[in-house]
Amino acid sequence: MGSAGTAVEEDTEAVAASGVADPWVTIVWNDPVNLMSYVTYVFESYFGYPRVKAERLMTQVHEDGRAVVSSGGRERMEVDVQAMHGFGLWATLQESGARGAA
Q: Domain Adaptor protein ClpS core spans what residues (predicted)?
């Protein structure tokens, strides 16, 4: 596996740079069950991401073990995490570390 921590740190730094107050992130984790094509489909259908972005995120999940797939307020991220669980994906939310950055 690659340096999974670095990938998430880079994604959360991008969120912090956006100036959003108290952002949270949804992280999708790799699992041995779901096919890569299915994970791509979930990212396209739920988040509305274009195929290229969905495939890039899926590849990050597969190679790095996780990927930040959305960011925003805690309540919205809780909804996204629950949706990912509904699709059978392993997902969690965490604070991006940008508290007070605005």
A: 22-92
Residue 18: its pLDDT value, please? 55
List helix spans (H) across the chain: 4-17, 36-47, 51-64, 74-86
Q: Look up the pTM and report it.
A: 0.76
Six-digit token string for 23: 């952002």
What are the φ/ψ torsions at residue 66 (nearest 5 degrees)?
-170, 160
**CA separation for the pair 10, 16 (Å, rounded):** 10
Summarised one tens digit per residue, pLDDT across range 75-94 is: 999 999 999 999 999 999 99
Among 12, 1, 5, 3, which residue's Cα sits nearest to residue 68?
A: 12
Give CA–CA dist 95/34, Å, rounded: 26
Which residue stretches of the chain have pLDDT < 70? 1-22, 98-102
